[in-house]
Specification:
Helices cover 55% and strands 0% of the residues. The chain is mainly alpha-helical. The longest helix has 29 residues, at 71-99. The chain is elongated and about 55 Å long. 14% of the residues are buried.
Amino acid sequence: MSTTTSIKLGDDFMKIPRLDDEGKNWVIFKARFFWSIDARGYSDHIDGTASAPADPVNRTGTPQAPQTLTNDEQLLEDAWKKETKVWNQGEAIVKQQIAATILDSLFMEICGMGTARAIWEALVEVFEKRSRMVSVDL
């Protein structure tokens, strides 16, 4: 007889400390952020190993005269929409994880960036420099 254990990753599991506005805790924040995102299976949204699913249908229609899809194209379209929904949900989770751990002023600077990866890279750009400055001062 085998036993199955299921683990639900709830809100408490995703809690990481707030990023200090001066970046004093950047190294720890970054490590804990990666662990948290990786535990949920979304590290590819940050590390660039994956991207949003590409539309598999060669579009020839216009908004005014939409393309009529073949049965095969419709199957591809339906699968793509499901994959895109999953991808977008992952993006939203990662973006929210970032938003919940930074100051409002920093959020306002990065919220217009399209992808979770672009947002993360902007944070890295700012706080890696600050982190190096702190280590040089030591």
